[in-house]
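Feature request disguised as a bug: please show the residue count (114) next to Large ribosomal subunit protein bL20 in the output. Example input:
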Amino acid sequence: MPRVKRGTIANARRKRLLKHTKGFLWTRKSKFRQAKEATLHAWSFQFADRKKKKRTFRNLWTIKINAAARQHGISYSKLINQLKKANIEIDRKILADLAEHEPKIFEHIFKQIQ
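Example output, currently without the count:
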């Protein structure tokens, strides 16, 4: 049986994986076996957190809108309900941005739904 020489391929594979562990602590950045496990965990956390990020931002927008709405004496849920009844289609992201950075425009929208 002929001898198989593939050391360069194995080294390239290890080097490629160790590139992903840059910034990890201790043996997780330098030893292949630990690095492989750490990378797999990191990638699964990455995937999950990309989904979680959407939830977190929507929650943040709700908090910002609620804070601005309560300054005008109305709760968040009533504000959203009145916006829907008045057929004003502004999504929560834009509404939160207006509430934070453009309070006069937010107040103008608030007066329209009254």
